[in-house]
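Objective 1b: paired records.
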Amino acid sequence: MTYWLISSLLAGAAIWLTAGRARARAAVFSNPSAKLVMLAGNITLGLVAVGLGLADFRYLAAAPPLIWLLHEVYTARMRAGDERRAWQELAGAVHAMSRLDVSGVVSAAAAGAHRLFAPEAVEVAVCRSGAPTRRYRSDTAGEVRAGAEPPIDGAGVLVHELSVGEEKVGELRVRFHDPSTVGVRERLALSAFADALGAALHNAASHARLREMADRKAYEAEHDLLTGLVNRIKLLEYGDEQLRVEPNEDPREVALLLLDLDHFKDVNDTLGHAAGDQLLRAIATTLSSRTEPDEMLARLGGDEFALLIPSPPVWRQGSEYAAERARQLAAALAAPVEIAGVALSVEAAIGVAAVPAGGCVMAELLRRADVAMYQAKRTGRAICRYDPARDAASTDRLALLAELRAALAADDQLILHVQPAIDLASGEPTGAEALIRWQHPRRGLLGPGEFVGVVEQSELVGPFTRYVLDVALGVMSRWGAEGLDIPVAVNMSARSLLDRNLPADVAELLGRHHVPPERLVLEITETVMMTELDIIDDVLAGLRALGVRLSVDDFGTGYSSLTFLARFEVDEVKVDQEFVARMGEAPEAEAIVRSTVELGRALGLRVVAEGVETAEQKAALSAMGCEAGQGYHFFPPMPADKTAKVLWTLRQAASARGAQVIPLSGRAAQPGQE
């Protein structure tokens, strides 16, 4: 045991002095199993020798062969253990270099080289395409530093070129305290280590190039290369995210501006395409400087730009705020910019579209903004908001039609509201107008302007007209049973008058509900009655033959307000609310209203003024001799049951005052004929 301890200490000290502390520690504490075998063999051999010497001194002659054999066994075992351990460590070091970044590969290589070869310093030079060689150095402390120092050199430095095929990827330099201590096995291991390091650096560099290419392709897939703005694909993706409604999310709107430059082709034709590209970049810079952080500015291609406004301020409607932003951008573009030595002022047509979140997908919102933009171009306006009535290809129309079919079948979504018409002199109710409302299960209560126009341009116009007539006549039947014989007007669309079966359908509905035909008033617009179609003449004649009353709606807005009076027999004209609203400020509007009242009196027609909103308007109409008015100054449209109570109250109040009731025909009623 004393021999073993002394020999171990002496061997460790010798290795420490020649190869350094790390190698000495490794030599002393490595391969413990082989050293235990050696210790056991030495002790056994000593005991055997002592036993043989005590038994017969001549037996000691057999000791040298046994000692030699034991030494060979020990040496082979130590060599096998060292080889196995060395290759395991080499495999671990090579595996550690399997990184995808160059700095990680170099750090792993430096740590592995210090662990495998215990050098004084390790340096890895990395060759970069199109860039200076970058050197990484590590000392015995294991810290890796990148710098531009000259390469390590000297007698104790082993150099290995790192290459893959014909491509040089770097260089490995390892400095030892004493190169003579590096045997053939260490040199072979160092060569294998260098080859693995070269392959790892090549893989990392290749991955970096692939990642760079992928990032560039991803950027190009979502950005416009000329201006650096996002493109249509990214805008659609971001827009769909913003239009998506999360559970329990507060209601909000999403708005989109679509800008198309005016006369951009002239710039390309006059100054060249390079100048056109320069102008597009300048416009992108101008618009970007005025884009809010949560907004997204995109170039869709050519001279089209788009601005997505995901969350307009809660106190502003999306379309109003978007229109204001459009005016700001138009003013910014109007500022002169110098292109190819020429000062240019840019004008653009801007389409504005806004929808509630969840109202449609981004592609539909973009289409609507495009419709509005082309509407602005056609009308010569700078800014135009999306108008569903001008959109013949609206997908919302298709959805509404499908949902309306379900509403007609459900029989509880389409609700009839009624607005009374009041005699301006007596306050007596002279009639009422039926106005349909749609209690949509998803969109809430919709007014006629939000869906009737869609219906009139579809094949549902016939079923829809019959449905409204059926509901209105049902209300009139209930009122009649209660003694309330107020005439009710129902609006008729142009397409419904092209149906020769309409008179027969009206007759069937009147009979089913037991309503006298003179209590039904069909309102027809003046422009429809001016249509030169024989079928309309036939349908109107059939309705008149039933005894149904005819009223001309929106009087004064057609091309000729007199010709149709000679062509058709009507009972009533309704002055368009636009003229009523402008009486106090536009003399021509007041003249139209006055002329209509006088014309109606001369022809024995009842004249009803629509849209009466103020007491001043009522007083002016009364002074002109207008008989009846309809509007929010009196009553808004109300549910039928509530309207019945109002009509009874008005009639009782008029009767208490002794007012004379004016029937629909405009002639005074005889006693007992109220």
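Objective 1b, second protein:
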Amino acid sequence: MALSAKKEALVWKTLNETRGKIEPSEYKNYIFGIMFYKYLSDKAQNWVQSISQGTSWAEIWQQDQQQAAAYMQDNLGYVIQPGDLFSDWQKAINTDKFNVMMMSDAMAHFNQGIAPKAKTAFAGIFDDMDLTSTRLGNNTQARTATITDMINLMSEIELDEDSDVLGDLYEYLIGMFAANSGAKAGEFYTPHQVSEIMAQILTSGREDVENYSLYDPAMGSGSLLLTTANYMHNAGKQGAIKYYGQELITTTYNLARMNLMMHGVEYNDIHLRNADTLNSDWPDGVVDGVDAPRMFDAVMANPPYSLRWDNQDRENDPRFKMGVAPKSKADYAFLLHCLYHLKQDGRMAIVLPHGVLFRGAAEGKIRKNLLKNHNISAVIGLPEKIFTNTGIPTVILILEKNRENDDVLFIDASKGFEKAKNSNKLRKQDIDKIINTYLDHKDVDKYAHVASMDEIVENDYNLNIPRYVDTFEEEPPVDVQKLVDDMHELDQQEEELTSEIKTMMDDLVGTTPEAQKTLELLKKVLK
């Protein structure tokens, strides 16, 4: 990360000082919106400088507003008018002329200037910033002051020419807001160490593929997509990696769009949608005139755990041909959705609660079908308390569509972690051990086991990890003689201490009759 730990701490401290009465879960919408606008504004200014030959953007705009707007739209997908640039806000602040309405007008102009081809990427992306909210202040002057503090903070962040500092800061702040947003954090954040495990497994042996498609049907802020793409060698090449994702919560969907673009992903490589994954199966595409489901090279997900869902009339849905998950728990509905959209030679990883390994009824039938179809290749047990929104232990399931082998690799990584203040954290050595064990696909004493289908059938298709990985450590035999010697030594020490106390007590004299009486009683006790 380009930002130093000191700089990160300063930014977070300043954010909290400017936050006022706004809850972290709401405040992030403002700070991320301003950060993203700065990113777009700086990008627009750099583009203008590269083509203007010294002419200012205001001069170009004045010569032919329509042509200037069309040219910027064609190259960037959006338009930022002269006077609406982030640098214009800074100048206005420095001359005491800034007003919150300048930002409001700029956002309105931005929405009006989005290119038709870029609507999916940019439309409504700043809608979560309510600039009239009393949380910012009780009047326009107070709201202006609050927004000014945020702009000044963003102005202090120095950009490194060789790295995307704003993107790094965005990722850092997502984690910090998650840690301070309680249960709501689960809506948008997957801990980076978990993303690392999934990303490395998904891309192993495929890093050099020229064209690769990624899909996350419960994408949150998009961190899983970005982390996975980071291991692809062509990730920085436009058109090489295609990002697909779906998110139900609009605010979180906006976070994801910002996150991807601030990490350098071009808008025409981004295909995200704000909708309900289970109720609205997407994405799909027309191939040879036929509307067919779209398949992906890698599918990843950290869906909401044991979510209630509408499972009525799902029997004819092709996604759920192996079974329909119970209405009280959508875990297997998400899993089957992911598997359905996986290419025949693709690979998927999904985080779910342990219950999916052993619960019966409808879930037991789905699990049996998956195993008989050789779809499940690995079960990785993670430590408890590594997610900000739940303390329960979770598992990563790795699945493929066309496996010849029917064995399943079980990894019990539940004990490899570092304790933090209110959570547990996977260290680099813990992550590396998981990845290497997965790639080696061999037994590791007390840690991993490759179970044959015969073993799994013998366990009635129950995948509970302790059935396959024995982590029991025998207690060393008790040394009876040493125990007796220790007890004898303690008896001797007690006698010596009692004798010393008696000697000291004999030298004591009470200063009053009552004190002397108490002293005599104590001496009798010690005899």
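Confidence is low (pLDDT under 50) at residues 159-163, 183-188. The radius of gyration is 31 Å.
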